[in-house]
Amino acid sequence: MPITKVIKTIYRALSAHANIDDDAKYAIQKCISEFIPFITTWDNKQRHQDSSSTITAMDVLSIMNILKFVYYIKLTLLLNNYRAQDLNIALCNMGYFCGTS
Question: Among its keywords, does the record have Zinc (predicted)?
């Protein structure tokens, strides 16, 4: 994942006056770069068992549940609300980004 996208994502989660060390930015980028292939590899194994060729967002979330990433299962709610065009409501209900930006 490009470092600029990582930085933008980090700053969205932090307060406006927060600073992030360059080493921390690159460490987070490395974690994300490892996490994405890890999850998709597990999901790909599941797709082969189900004889399916398409990985959906719900598939990824179910694999995350199997791998005990329980906190991230809240993303299911976000995903469902996003599909209903209620992204701001979903984020606010989860305690993030209340208000418009």
Answer: no
